[in-house]
Design brief:
The protein contains six helices and two strands; from the N terminus they run αααααββα. By secondary structure, it is mainly alpha-helical. It has one domain: dinb family like domain (Four Helix Bundle (Hemerythrin (Met), subunit A), Up-down Bundle), CATH 1.20.120. The chain has a two-stranded antiparallel ribbon. Helix 1 runs antiparallel to helix 4 and helix 1 packs parallel to helix 6. The radius of gyration is 16 Å and the shape is globular.
């Protein structure tokens, strides 16, 4: 059941790491869309989604999440790649611990969203894909044509 979602998260994380390998540290400062995050901030956010969203799904408060994001801000390409892998593994380890009954248990976010743990896993996958698409668009707007497969 969860293995299908893991497969898609694998594709997203692998493509993000491959994309990082095509960027320079200077590229992280690019801000191709006025009023939006720079490429580096978006990559930093992407790198922590798998762990952050697990915390949210387990009832972390808004204050706890603000502290989490403050303490988990990878800045360099190597830190971003390390965080992508570590947080992906955190997600997988956490979800492999759940039995079927626990996967179907509904939990609430601090803003009131209620999903089963299985639905949260799909939300996490969607969150990663959403921002990866944003990143691809941002890079394309700067003239960088990422050479990564976004889907298998």
């Amino acid at each position: 059941m969860i293995q299908s979602a893991f497969k898609h998260i694998d594709v997203a994380v692998t493509s993000l790491i491959n994309l990082c390998d095509q960027l320079s540290e200077q590229d992280l400062a690019l801000t191709p869309i006025e009023g939006k995050r720079p490429v580096g901030e978006l990559l930093s956010h992407l790198s922590v989604i798998c762990r952050a969203d697990v915390h949210i799904s387990e009832g972390a408060s808004e204050e706890e999440m603000a502290l989490f994001y403050e303490e988990n801000q990878p800045n360099s390409l190597s830190e971003i790649k390390e965080a992508l892998i570590a947080n992906q593994m955190y997600l997988y380890h956490r979800y492999r611990q759940f039995n079927t009954e626990e996967l179907l248990q509904v939990t609430d976010s601090y803003w009131g969203a209620s999903y089963s743990r299985l639905e949260w896993l799909l939300e996490i996958m969607g969150h990663v894909y959403h921002h990866r698409g944003q990143l691809h668009t941002m890079l394309t707007l700067t003239g960088i044509e990422p050479k990564v497969a976004l889907f298998e």
